[in-house]
Amino acid sequence: MTDLTAAPDSLPLDLYAERAYLEYAMSVVKGRALPEVADGQKPVQRRILYAMKEMGLAAGAKPVKSARVVGEILGKYHPHGDSSAYEALVRMAQDFTLRYPLIDGQGNFGSRDGDGAAAMRYTEARLTPIADLLLAEIDQGTVDFVPNYDGAFDEPRLLPARLPMVLLNGASGIAVGMATEIPPHNLTEVAAAAVALLKDPALDTAGLMTYLPGPDFPGGGRIITASDDIRAAYESGRGSVRV
């Protein structure tokens, strides 16, 4: 009779499936789908910004073809399909998608009516001044660097991020078992609320809302949701806003 004794390094199928699914879920949560609260960026967005900074594409530089930027991102930091990098780059350049665009796009980057962007060989890109603020002093020991996917280069674990981009531009993402949908806010109002909180750390939500009354969407419009409902959403992390 055949001996079916398990090898020392084997696992029962149920334990292996549980462990493999957990590793997959954590990879999606931390490495792809959700932004980091410290700099407000998803990994692909962070890699786009860092790659463009390394290419010398600051706000005052001459823009280069988006295809060149995408090639740099894929080759050094983000070994996925070119569409994943270019679609993220396009979104970061759309002033109707982000309250404060991080990329200055030249050419057809789509419209709010649903028109898609031109192919990457036709468009050009460089960073915006607010993106320069996210990257300022990155080479001065302000953040930790980690090896890229093959160990040939280093990439920042986070950006220095002088601005709270997770509040300014909001965030949207769906991971395994969790999701996020954070609305954007006005820079002046966020700054005023931050100063008020520094002066009075015990300031409650109602007090903060005297400086930051609610979201500020890039498409404009008027928010008709009651202030009490917005405050409840801020306090609970769940709610909706009608525009």
Automatic annotation (TrEMBL):
Record Pfam families: DNA_topoisoIV
Topo IIA-type catalytic domain span: 34-243
One BP term from GO: DNA topological change
Active site: Y122
UniProt superkingdom: Bacteria
Catalytic activity: ATP-dependent breakage, passage and rejoining of double-stranded DNA
Molecular function GO labels: ATP binding; DNA binding; DNA topoisomerase type II (double strand cut, ATP-hydrolyzing) activity
Keyword DNA-binding listed: yes
Cellular component annotations (GO), alphabetically ordered: cytoplasm; DNA topoisomerase type II (double strand cut, ATP-hydrolyzing) complex
Keywords carried by this UniProt record: Cell membrane, DNA-binding, Isomerase, Membrane, Topoisomerase
Name this protein carries in UniProt: DNA topoisomerase IV subunit A
